[in-house]
Automatic annotation (TrEMBL):
It comes from Methylobacterium ajmalii. Residues 1-63 form the HMA domain. InterPro entries: Heavy-metal-associated_CS (IPR017969), HMA_dom (IPR006121), HMA_dom_sf (IPR036163). The keyword Lipid metabolism does not apply. Keywords: Metal-binding. SUPFAM superfamilies: HMA, heavy metal-associated domain (SSF55008). This is Heavy-metal-associated domain-containing protein. Gene3D superfamilies: 3.30.70.100.
Amino acid sequence: MLRFHVSNMNCGGCAKGVTRAVQGLDGDVKVDVDLSSREITVRGAVDPSRVVAALRQAGYEARALGA
């Protein structure tokens, strides 16, 4: 399980975009979004740096959080 803070995620459309970006790396990952804290949890076999890169490419500023 990986956690990320996505500073510019603030609406349902953003949540969908973030989910789509992460699932574009691997369709088997599960993404849980918490808009109030602007955090996502990713479950699956993906490298944290690839998640951050995919989110940045999609226009979101993200950083990995401790487990």
